[in-house]
Amino acid sequence: MTFEVTKDTIIGDILDVDFDVAPYFIDMGMHCLGCPSARGETIEEACAVHGVDPDELVKKLNAHFSGK
């Protein structure tokens, strides 16, 4: 599966492709993955709220998807 994540990718879109990435978000303190605002945020927006480097999360997510 080829799915590329950027800082502008919507979290809900990522979870729709593969919910197995949920732990990446939970580990950064984003525990409400089912709420509409969380699913509608971009990676960059969510990282800003949770004090996480968006580039690191994008790198982890793309590594996950490249292994599929």
List keywords for this structure.
68 residues, mainly alpha, 5 helices, 0% strand
Protein described:
With 68 residues, this protein is mostly helical. It has one domain. The model has no long low-confidence stretch (mean pLDDT 91). The chain is 57% helix and 0% strand. The N and C termini lie close together (5 Å). It has 5 helices and no strands. The longest helix is centred in the last third of the chain and has 13 residues.
Spell out the blueprint of helices and strands.
Blueprint: H1 11-17, H2 22-27, H3 36-40, H4 43-50, H5 54-66
Mean pLDDT over the full residue set: 91
Please give the share of residues in helix: 55-70%
Distance between the termini: 5 Å
Q: What structural class do the secondary elements suggest?
A: mainly alpha
What is the tally of helical segments?
5
Q: How many structural domains can be distinguished in the coordinates?
A: 1
Shape field = globular
What is the structure about, briefly put?
This protein has 68 residues and is mainly α.
